[in-house]
Here is the input.
Amino acid sequence: MGKKNTSRSVGKQFRGLLGAHFSIAKGLHNAVLEAKLFGCNVLQMFTKNPNSWKEPTILPDQVDRFKRTKAQTGIREIASHTSYLINLAAVEKKKRAKSCQALKRELFRSSILGISYVVLHPGFHMGKGEREGIHRIATSINEVLYETAGATPRLLLETTAGQGSVLGNTFDQLASIMEQIENRDRVGICLDSCHIFAAGYDIRTPICYHQTIDDFDAVIGLRHLLLIHLNDSNKDLGSRVDRHEHIGRGFIGLKSFECFMKDPRLSHIPKIIETPKERNRKNWDSINLQQLRSLLKGLG
Ligand SMILES: [Zn+2]
Here is the structure.
């Protein structure tokens, strides 16, 4: 799939692809500018309001400005996160059609903007059970990919915490979805540290971390892992509750993030924080990014 060599050093001594989720409230291009301001070389953003079905019209001017800003800032990769309303496993036909439509629009919009990855929560089975839910998700994805043949972004299924009837909280489920996707070159996985921990995968110690990553490799295959969300967890192991916490200040702890940052198998994969923003008037993005960068110190 033509991944670029990422061994070139970026920024001060930092090597690797690190960023955060930034807001588009002041314009699409502003998310890119903000990422640069925080010393990031990758970022994640929404391309629309994630809590609404409304589809925005993006004007050619906005596309130009966005692409120009990306080129000027030297930002390497951008991921977009899909609307929270999308459920590709929806039982109701109308809701599933609406979800597929929203995903198609997201893929096209991201494609026009030159965005590399579109992150998706796989879906909720709504009481119909795992097997049926997985089948419905894969069928929906196949349909969406067929109808967006020219779109360039990779669609990434995100690991989930396992709340309610959500699917994607085990590596087996994600592997099952992947197996049923016809065009696997257009999809991949986004691993969220907070979500897998809440789902029951222990990553707190180097031994547990390596077991979990080995497990991912055995079940899904690390070659399919294209994006990582680094978030600490406000809830304990196996809680199935998705609450992000500042890096090193939650139940996961700093040691785990050191493992993620130093793991040579993951060094080429963009890593994005989605930790809480302003709290007590502190600039938490800056603190969390600095914390992660500092974990690499002493590495060759
Ligand atoms: Zn995430």
